[in-house]
Write a structure and sequence with these properties.
globular; four-stranded antiparallel sheet; three-stranded antiparallel sheet
Length: 83
Amino acid sequence: MSVPYADNQDGSLSVIVKDLQYAADVYLLDQNNFNRYQRGESFEYFGGNYNQSPVKITVDGPGRWYLIVDDGGSGSQYSFEWM
C-alpha cells in the first residue's frame, strides 16, 4: 500500500482532499502515529470523519506527515494537494 506523505521542515503544512465520493475518515499522522496505525494500535491524528469535500487539514510541526483516507472499503477515488 502506497501512502502519500509530505516532509515539513518548519511552519505549518496543509493538505486539501478533493472529490470524496463517499463519507470517509481522513487522517493526517506524524511518523510515530503512522507506525501505531500500521501496527493496528490506537493512534492520535488530525482530521476526522467527513461526508463532503473539499477537506482541509492543517498541522504545525516538523517531520514527515502521512495522509490516510479510509472510506470503509468502498474503493472511491479522491485527489489531494499538499500546501
